[in-house]
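Hey, can you fold this one?
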Amino acid sequence: MSSVLDTIPGPVVLVGHSYGGAVITDAAVGHPNVKALVYIAAFAPDQGESSLAVLGE
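Sure. Predicted structure:
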């Protein structure tokens, strides 16, 4: 996903559902054109935090 973000010239809003929340969190790092992350019933980890850590595993 990160390489796709490099091809988009304008502002981007990423939306993730379920495990996709972890994916958009990591994909947004280093992409200043990503203006918002939207989590819909999704994992919402801090940068560098794993999905297992979110679950308390």
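Strands lie at 12-18, 34-42. Let me know if you want another pass with a different chain boundary.
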